[in-house]
# Entry
Amino acid sequence: MNKYKPLKIKLLEISGLYPSILAMRLPIKGSSEKSDSYIKIDDRVFVGREDKKLLSKLVKAGNGHEKASRGIWAYFEMEFSITWMIELDTYRIGGEVLSTSSSMNYDLAGMKGLELAQKKQDMASDKYYKRIQMFSYPTLRRIYQQRRHHRHPDWGVFCDYMETLPYFDEFIMPDKG
# Structure
């Protein structure tokens, strides 16, 4: 009997795009005036062609050069098994868990001590957790590079979803092609 349920993921928000675009031009004298990005009347960010090109170049150059993209954060709602959650926790640097669903408050209310511990352990492999988590774009790049062809299918689901994120080709994997 197959009990496997694949990862479910939904993008909630991308933040920090405009400040990151502004920040990337600060180290080069006179470069700030070359920015072709702006915030529209409806508060959406328009990223200009020259800014996309420059940030892509910096991301490709690697650690230290891609520092501006550290300010771009993606917030996700995800549902997954505890076994994949343990693997995902490898990427704590550049990621932050806002909250995870709790069996203590729902499934095991009123239990305590050894009874609680045993019941949690018994149900751990069958439990499907919901989590709100955020990752910086450089962390998403690292995850994509390291897990794109991983044998666990949830990494494939996560990487496929990542490819749909705004500016994936420019700010996460500009060297993918």
Q: What stands out?
A: The beta strands are 8-15, 38-39, 45-46, 73-81, 95-100, 128-136.
